[in-house]
From TrEMBL, chain A:
Top-rank lineage group of the source organism: Bacteria
Transmembrane segments: none
Gene assigned in the entry: metW
NCBIfam families for the chain: metW
SUPFAM superfamilies: S-adenosyl-L-methionine-dependent methyltransferases
UniProt-recorded name of the protein: Methionine biosynthesis protein MetW
One Pfam family this sequence matches: MetW
InterPro entries noted in UniProt: Methionine_synth_MetW, SAM-dependent_MTases_sf
TrEMBL record, chain B:
Binding site for substrate: R218, D349
Protein name stated in the entry: Homoserine O-acetyltransferase
Subunit annotation: Homodimer.
GO CC annotation, single: cytoplasm
Family matches, as SUPFAM superfamilies: alpha/beta-Hydrolases
Lineage start: Bacteria, Pseudomonadati, Pseudomonadota, Alphaproteobacteria, Sphingomonadales
GO molecular function: homoserine O-acetyltransferase activity
Pathway: Amino-acid biosynthesis; L-methionine biosynthesis via de novo pathway; O-acetyl-L-homoserine from L-homoserine: step 1/1
Gene symbol of the encoding locus: metXA
Function: Transfers an acetyl group from acetyl-CoA to L-homoserine, forming acetyl-L-homoserine.
UniProt organism field: Aurantiacibacter rhizosphaerae
Amino acid sequence: MSALRPDLAKIAYMVPASSRVLDVGCGEGDLMEVLQLQKQCDARGMEIDAEQVAKAVSRGLSVVQGDANRDLADYPNGAFDVAVLSQTLQTAQRPDWLLEQLLRVGREAFVSFPNFAYWRMRLSLLRNGRMPISRHLPGSWYETANIHHLTIADFREFLSQRGVNISGSWFFADGREIGGRNANWRAEHAVFQLSR
Amino acid sequence: MATTTAIDFRTLTLDAPLPLDSGRALAGVEMAYETYGELAADKSNAVLVCHALTGDQFVAGTNPVTGKPGWWERMVGPGKPIDTDRFHVICANVIGSCLGSTGPASAGPDGQPYAMEFPVITIRDMVRAQMAMLDALGIGRLHAVVGGSMGGMQALSCAANFPERTDRVLAIATTARHSAQNIAFHEMGRQAIMADPNWQGGNYYAGETPAKGLAVARMAAHITYLSEEGLTEKFGRRLQDRDAKSFGFDADFQVESYLRYQGLSFTDRFDANSYLYITRAMDYFDLAEEHGGLLADAFRGAKDTRFCLVSFDTDWLYTTADMREVVHALNAVAAPVSFVELSAPYGHDSFLLDVPALDRVVKGFLV
């Protein structure tokens, strides 16, 4: 089993054992596999890319090919204990709708995203005056899937406006977890645990 | 119980009359079947493969009737995605067909062919017959039931009606309900058969067969199995063995010649009445209707069955949208379901052809 990305490892650690989990944008199912094998979860996935779905299915995982921007509406209310959205929020057509759906189908949600206010991003923009390209946000402005960049401060404000509870938050830089102090400029990406 | 007929079909006879959806019962049903790979001592490795409209029990190896490879030879065999080194694969000719199992060409109670006295059957009747066959073979629970097209309908029907009989369901290029368009194409084929003067109300077994009508039916159906893109790529507007149009009604175009060949060669191996009965069964297929109108209710008993559904982007006969309805219903009952739309240029026939991504999905799902 390959090592999980730090945000996924944190989510895998936090998800309660034996829970029903929907991983939205599950890719080839790295997180799902860990949740099933190590935490006896009933994990289901949704992924838009057919090749990645095929790989996940060939690992014995239950993954439905679908577009989260539309197909999440097909799941019943409260169908899952936990819904996971990792590094996908910034690619959504309507991140606000997606988050509502996530908290509708899951009793709680884990959301991770790259923080656009990370100091290297700020510095790059200040110095070069061009859209920054980084490890977590590769790709030029015209071809990137990341169409709704956000910062940790934006996300907190958004959650408070919508009355979403934050049960936990974790921050990462250079592949390591860091403390929460001044996270909006120190963190490269963030994980939030949310509930209604 | 297993016997061998003159043409070397391996068959067994069901002990009890088979109850049918029509309310009738069919006595003395013979099931022609083949098996590949050893059955494990605990009988845990049986995989039932269900064939499509005109298919047969010879899924792998060499078909002894035609001398050609089995219809899913690329998928089933030693080391293949449905690995006969691991699985005991069973494939039976469906009832109503004409390749060894009881159908309209079989002798009825009076010793004459049933012809149109054969009862109208459904997909669920086909599945019932296969479950009765498994009983006779001493196999209670399957590792998986697998099928494409009409075989996929049987796989879904098995999950809905006999969920206790299988751990997994793999349904490819199929639907939970025949659409108006699906029925329309079948009706055209049936009318072509019945318009053939040789059809004789179905009583043609002693004389000439309605081969022309059956060939037209096959030609029409064959078009629905291919994509427009595939037809254009394969034939375009190219002419057949000539440099110019004939200004007549010969097969000027390659695509005409191809369809005529497909139609004609089909009549050598298939019974016209079987074609009527099996297309009818497919047209009657509506899993939701069978279960009170809500597709999710069809799968209430199958929430612990693992499902894998596959559609193809160029299949306009049974579309991705059709398959998504099944996914939706399975999500509603929280059944563990996987679904993928694969990209392949061959239309509906993709499930039978070289699509490596399908091989990977099938292999991975059956593990």
